[in-house]
Design goal:
The structure holds two protein chains of two kinds. Chain A is mostly helical. Chain A has five helices and no strands. By secondary structure, chain B is mainly α. Chain B contains three helices and no strands. Classes of the chains: A mainly alpha, B mainly alpha.
């Protein structure tokens, strides 16, 4: 196996492992706020590692550009989705978005 | 075996926990699972495109990555207000 192929396997393996661990995290956590934490690495580390593996492996420039574009889209939209989902979960659970004075004191 | 095909298989297996949560948990937890499943499916399409040597499949992954965002935002908006 060539060094280039080893690098591809390492990068792809890392990306896939991150996604599997995040999926297991979403399965095992108890509420939606805990589960939301696992969207972070799944939209950051996984896509970047897979795109890097494509960059190393692909001979086609078009494929490389598209893989990087996909990773960047997932990278940019992940935090937006997490924020929107957390906001919706909080409004559903507490009936409001902002913390009240009593709640802020308890949090401190 | 092609590492890209093996990666595709493992990523497909990673969809199973998302499916379990999407079927059994509460509404907001289901949304989280669907968002993660969208990301994993995008990566499956990328790995599949590389495994099959068909760059055209990258377009599917690109379209899914772009379309899954507004879909999840609409779900979050409706779950926040009306559902």
């Amino acid at each position: 196996m060539s060094p280039r192929m080893v690098l591809v396997v390492v990068l792809l393996g890392f990306g896939v492992t991150v996604e599997v661990l995040c999926a297991l995290g979403v399965l095992l956590m108890r509420n939606s706020f805990d589960r939301l934490h696992y969207l972070g690495p799944a939209t950051l580390l996984g896509p970047l590692a897979v795109a890097a593996a494509v960059l190393v492996d692909a001979s086609d420039t078009q494929a490389r550009i598209k893989a990087v574009l996909i990773a960047l889209i997932l990278l940019a939209t992940g935090p937006i989705l997490t924020h929107a989902t957390a906001r919706a979960a909080r409004v559903r659970q507490f009936g409001r978005l902002h913390t009240e004075e009593q709640e802020a004191k308890v949090a401190k | 075996m092609n590492p890209w095909l093996a990666g595709t298989g493992v990523l497909l297996a990673a969809l199973i926990p998302c499916g379990i949560v999407a079927v059994r948990a509460k509404a907001m937890d289901r949304l989280v699972a669907v968002e993660l499943a969208g990301t994993i499916t995008t990566l499956i399409l990328v790995a599949l495109a590389q495994a099959l040597g068909r760059p055209a499949v990258f377009d599917l992954a690109l379209a899914l990555a772009l379309l899954s965002v507004p879909a999840a935002l609409v779900f979050a908006h409706f779950l926040e207000r009306w559902l």
